[in-house]
Protein: Dihydropyrimidinase
Amino acid sequence: MAQFDLAIRGGTIVTASDEFRADIGIRDGRIVSIADRIEGAAREIDATDLLALPGGIDSHVHISQPSGPDVVMADDFASATRAAAAGGNTTILPFALQIKGSSLRACVEAYKKLADGECYIDTSFHLIISDPTAVVLGQELPALVKDGYTSFKVFMTYDDLVLSDKQLLEVFEVARREQALVMVHCEGYDAIRHLTEKLEREGHIAPYFHGTSRPQIVEREATHRAISHAEIVGVPIMIVHVSGREAMEQVRWAQQRGLPVHAETCPQYITLTADDMKGLNMDMSGAKYVCSPPPRDKASQDAIWDGIIGGVFHTFSSDHCPFRYDDPKGKLTPNSRTSFCWVLNGIPGVETRLPIFFSEGVSKGRISLQKFVELTSTNHARIYGLYPRKGSIGVDFDADIVLWDPKLKKTIRQSDLHHGSDYTPWEGFEVTGWPVMTIARGQVVADNGKIVGTKGAGEVISRGRSSLI
Ligand code: DUC
Ligand code: ZN
Ligand code: ZN
Structure:
C-alpha cells in the first residue's frame, strides 16, 4: 500500500514566514511529511515552477442571505464554494443572519441545513446579531460560542440590522465574557439617513449617489464610536471592510494606543472608485459596483495600501455579497430605479480576491509573498479560531493547498467565473499570477479553472477561540 495518498513535488512552499523548495506528502487529508524528496505516493502532482501556498481562507462572504422581499442572492452554498475553490480558496466563513424576532439558534440551524452536503470546500459560520434580546445575550449566544460559533458581526447601520449604542455595548460585554470576537460594520445609521433624504429631495437618485450618501466621515465617525465602545468594555474587535484613509487612520490611532483593534480590507478598496458607480449615459450599470462602504478614490486606495504595508490590516477578504445585475430579483429590482437606496448592496468577489491581491500586491512589488499568505490565509485562521488546523503548510495541518503560477497573465472575464452572479465588477481587469490548482483536505477541487471536486466533500466545521482573545 502507498505510504501517501498524494505527493506534491517540486513546488516552492510559501508560508507567512518562510519560503523553501520541498515536496509535500499527504495522507487522509492531512499533511504528514515535508521533505526534500517524497517517494511512495499513490498520486503525484508536479509543481515545478509553481508556488505551493496555504489555501485561501475568505473570512467574509455572504451566501443565501435573505436580503428583502422578492430578492435572491446569486449564490447558494454549492455555487459559492465552487467559485471560491476555482479562485484558490479552501475555506470560507459566511454569516448566519439572525432575522429580527427569531431565535439565533434556529437561524443557525437553517443555514447549516442549506450548507450541509452542498459545499465543495470547508465552511464555517459567523453569526450576525440583529436582535440582541435578553434570551439571545444571556442564553443563545453563550451556548453557540461553546458550540464553536466563536465570532459574530454587528451593524451600525441598516433598518433591519442596526444596533443602538447600548445594544452594541451589551453585545461587546457578552463577547468579552464568552471570549468571542466581534466584527463591526462601521457606518453611522442616522447620518446616512439624513444624507439620503437630502439627496433624494434634490433629485439625486442614480446609483452613483449611493457613495455620496455614505461618505468617509460617516465611516470614520462609526469606526471611532465602535473603537470607543470596545475600549469601554475592554474587548478586542475586528473592523470589517475598511474603505479608505479616514477609517484606516482611526484604526491605526487605536492600535498606536495599544488597543486590541483589528481591521480587514477588500479588493474593491484597492481597485474600484466612486466613479465606477456612475455608469454610462445615466443607465443603471453603476449598480454593479454598489457596495457598502462604497469604493472611494485613488487617494483612498493609496491609504489602504499604506495600511496593508504598515500592518494596520490583518485580513484581506472579499466581502462577497453577490446579486445578479440584469434581474428583477437582483440589482435591477423595480424599486432600484426610483432611488440608489433601493439598489441591493454588495458585489461578487470570492473567486477574484486572491488573483487581484496577488497581482496588485506581489506582482507589482508592493508586498512580499509572506505578507500575501498572512493576509489571505494565516491570519484568517488565527483570528477566527481555525489555527493550527488551517492557515499554513506544515505537518498535521489539513492538506489545504493552492498551487499558484506567479507568472501567468490572465484577464478576468465573467465567462470564466463559477459564481452565480451574471457579472463581475472586474470584467477586463488584467492580473499577473493565478491559482492553477486548489487542493482541499488532500483532494483536487479545481484544476485550471475546471471544478473536479465533489459537492459535499466540504464540511461545515466549528471553530475554536480567536488568537486575539
Ligand atoms: N456589509 C457587508 O459586510 N456586506 C455587504 C453589505 C454590507 O453592508
Ligand atoms: Zn458589512
Ligand atoms: Zn459583508
About this structure: The two ends are 44 Å apart (CA to CA). The mean pLDDT is 97. Residues 4-54+397-407+416-451 form a domain with the Urease, subunit C; domain 1 fold (CATH 2.30.40.10). Residues 3 and 362 are 36 Å apart (CA to CA).
